[in-house]
Amino acid sequence: MKRNNYILLILGLSFFGCYYDKVEVLYPGSTHCTEITTSFFSVNVLPLLNSRCNSCHGGSSPSGGIALDTYDNVLTYVNKGSLMGSINFQSGYSPMPKNSGKMSACEIRKIQSWIDAGALNN
Q: In this structure, what is the dihedral angle of CA atoms 66, 55, 75, 38, given to the nearest 10 degrees?
């Protein structure tokens, strides 16, 4: 009888000892950042800038004269280093988005991955 109890205990532990966590289930509402192998301006960068930056830095009169609503405009600030300096809150750059929290590490990685891939207009 004792042997049967041990077998049941081992079987029970094997069923409850391992499980698969899903980020979406454990942390609802969190954004899961997947690694980007190929970054595209039109898919990864522009939509992010539209949602996080272009309410101020888009349109006919962008804040501070800094427009981030087209590839050519964005490339200007990429080449100066000010885009990454600002969104990383680096010393010497105006932290952006202004009066808001820093972009998530995932959002910053998306932009940096695009720059590292050559900042192509794709």
A: 160
Percent of the chain with pLDDT over 70: 70
Q: 43-54: per-residue pLDDT in tens?
A: 999 999 999 999
Residue 11 in contact with residue 4, Cβ under 8 Å?
no
- The count of domains in the chain is 1
Query: In whole angstroms, what is the distance from residue 108 CA to residue 57 CA?
Result: 17
Q: How far is 53 from 19, CA to CA, in rounded Å?
A: 40
Residue 24: inside a domain: no
Q: Looking at the domain assignment, is residue 76 inside a domain?
A: yes
Domain range holding 69? 36-116
Structural domain contains residue 48:
yes
